[in-house]
Amino acid sequence: MCGIVGAYGWTHDETLSSMLDWIEHRGPDEEGSYLDRDAGLMMGARRLSIVDLEGGSQPKWNEDETVGVVFNGEIYNHGELRDRLSREGHQFESECDTEVLVHLWEEYGEEMVSRLEGMFAFSIWDREAETVFLARDRFGIKPLYFGTNDRGYVWGSELPALLIGGVDRTIDPAAVYNHFSLEYTPAPQTLLEDVWKVEPGQSVTITDDGVETRKYWDLLDLETGTRTTSMSAAADRLRTLLERSVEKRLMADVPVGAFLSGGLDSSAVTGIASQLKDDQLKTYSVSFTDDRLDESAEARLVADHFGTDHTEVPIDLSSMDLFGEMMQYLGEPTGHLQMLPMYALSERASQDVKVALAGEGADELFAGYPWYQHVPEHKRKVDFMPEFTHDVAGAVAQVAPVGNKHLRYFSGLKNNEEMLLNHVCGFTTFRPEPDEFLRTGESAATSGLRANVGEVTAEVADPSLEQHMSTYETGYTLPDYHLYKADHMSMAQSLELRVPFLSTEMVEFAHSLPAELKVNDDDVKRVLKTAVSDLLPDQILEREKMGMRPPVEDWFEEEHDSIETWFTREKLRQTPYVDANRATALRDAHRRGEESVGRTLWMILTYVAWYHSFIDEQNAVV
């Protein structure tokens, strides 16, 4: 596990060194770099040693040093690939997975990525072809940013490294609109006009002739809901896939632990891992003083059930002391409420282990969120009404003095596209819309958001709303929201987080299942619960989903330096596209108890703190 950086079209020793310094937390064990002035190429990596501790230094080269790679991630099938490549005559000097990549490039070129199973972001330099090849894993588990400046191209694991590399700091108003609609910025957008995310399942080829992008794997190409199978057969297959995936993700030459919330997903991963490991599994959870949000009792129940060595990390308002420190590791802000708990949890876990397993991905694949039940149910109740009534409700909502949120909700039940926009994309229906505190001049139509949603509803042949929701959330919300949070907060503490639910086999199998095996009026994640019913206590199988989220609604009623430092009228006014008067009014209304808008205030807080930390050149840390 590492962090990577690079540039093509120009070289500068100090810039490369500074870019690598920025991502030191991603790889505190070792630094490696390569610079070719004649070719105008430089790249480097910071290494967190996980596999082949002695032989995994980067960059890695082929036999004649014409092909080199810097790599972030883990290739779980590297042993099989190594054996195949050795039979073809390729020679290896180490046992690490990184070296497999250069020989795959020699053998298969850009088609190499289709043979990889794992989480990865890497850049390959082919000296003879004068070609840079960037690639990111199918599900966006590991991040990779790509940008341009007046000298050429620049890339890296974190956006601030590209700022050091000289990309322009102009903010994209369309991305700001999407960020506040979704609580994240959807790929390929970033908040900067000249920086993009390499998309999940995408490769980027750079030559003197320019840039070419290619989707080597696309979620929208999967057949959705077409498998004919019984619940018992599907559950048996899912259990086999999960056990196989967990076993592969225990591959390490360092200690491996697990994050355990007490929910179904992390409990299933913990249970299987504890059975597969020879030694006692270390597990970690957070606790909240607010009983409405605290899951620590359930986490302890699971830990006791499997005999893990369990540690709890308490989170309360005083944890906001970590906010400024945490923001230094967020190249893009996010409205994810789990960021701070994940940051603190990762800090504690990193004292004992270098790798932790987590349950990310199961909710998106197996319809685990409450809206997978509620929104389709509400749609069925109004199916008898003609479509124009939804249009009328939407028009009235814009001028209605009361009840406008409920009218907006009803309007959004018109069809799958509208339902995705209103009920999955950031839950905008019952919270302030971006226009209430922003001045971007953008809309869902101009920002690209409607196009993203429209592509999903057009390409997924299965007409069920549940499948459309699952595909959208797996393709956008999962990588740019949940996995972004998981990666950046864990790597901030030099901890590698692995996600067993996101194997290629698992994702393709999940999308092949009909919706009724995942969710009905009575339950969510039906097939997953059946698959692990003999593994977990009934209390865990039957409990409702909570999520590791702090009580930000309560926190914004209080005063704390980490809030008051950033949430000032002056800083709000200096932050592009924020309406300082309206943002201040929102917080005042929240503190008076007139509105509960903690999630919105958290998004504003992180956006303002991000802008003044990274973009405002008078105060930026890079």
Automatic annotation (TrEMBL):
Active site residues according to the UniProt entry: 2
Stated name of the protein: Putative asparagine synthetase [glutamine-hydrolyzing]
One CC-aspect GO term: cytosol
Enzyme Commission number(s) of this protein: 6.3.5.4
Pfam hit, one: GATase_7
Catalysed conversion reaction: L-aspartate + L-glutamine + ATP + H2O = L-asparagine + L-glutamate + AMP + diphosphate + H(+)
Ligase keyword on record: yes
Homology family: Belongs to the asparagine synthetase family.
One Gene Ontology MF term: asparagine synthase (glutamine-hydrolyzing) activity
CDD domains, sorted: Asn_synthase_B_C (cd01991), AsnB (cd00712)
Annotated residues for binding of L-glutamine: 97
UniProt keywords, alphabetically: Amino-acid biosynthesis, Asparagine biosynthesis, ATP-binding, Glutamine amidotransferase, Ligase, Nucleotide-binding
Native source organism of the sequence: Haloterrigena salifodinae
UniProt domain Glutamine amidotransferase type-2: residue ranges: 2-209
Alphabetical GO biological process terms: asparagine biosynthetic process
UniProt-annotated site: Important for beta-aspartyl-AMP intermediate formation, residues: 360
Binding site for ATP: 286
